[in-house]
């Protein structure tokens, strides 16, 4: 049985979630806060949602509430609403712990953490969840592959690759730019880069036992174009900044004010 779903916050995360649910054929009632009135109205028109007058009105109308505001605003928003026993609150706000959420919220709702990336709009991508809940698993599975985390520490670690989602866009732009400059039509350059990445990821996904370094060495053999490019990347230590970025995210988990 579908439950009524409410959103506090109508930005990118809410948009991805709502689009993915409707793409999956889910027609449950979706209630939106007026936090961003223009965006809420657009979502309501595009995806048959209802906009109500306040965040509390969302809570009153919904069985499950998704908190999708910026990290610096999350606790203040929660302090202004009252949840009821048996209700579920799912925070997709990065860096705000369950302890902080429980301390801020009024009422006896069950509280969870999750995360959404842009692929959810197309029903693909990882969706970490903590703690486990069968009903939420069924809901989120409409949007991608749910990864239930055993501890909150594991959940926080899962946010690093989730944030890397936002780094892929400039990577694709960097890879396609030289082809565009050389005269390749934009649609073909984009397709070539995207399909090359998707093909590589499919190999990795379906062969979890792969030693990725060994596969790279087998492809980038002396005299190949792949080796030529890889040598340049390694000489520039191009992979170290990616690792540094992930480490920085992990260190920033305790200070959500920096994540807004």
Summarize the structure.
With 260 residues, the chain is of the alpha/beta class. The chain has helices at 12-23, 37-47, 55-61, 71-79, 98-104, 134-140, 152-181, 186-206, 212-219, 225-235, 240-252, and strands at residues 5-8, 30-32, 50-51, 64-67, 88-91, 110-114, 126-130, 145-148. It is built from 11 helices and 8 strands.
Describe the protein:
Helix 7 packs antiparallel against helix 11. The chain is 52% helix and 12% strand. Strand 7, helix 6 and strand 8 (145-148) form a beta-alpha-beta unit. It contains 11 helices and 8 strands. The protein has an 8-stranded mixed β-sheet with strand order 3-2-1-4-5-6-7-8, with helices on both faces. It is elongated, with a radius of gyration of 21 Å. It has 260 residues and is of the alpha/beta class. The mean pLDDT is 93.
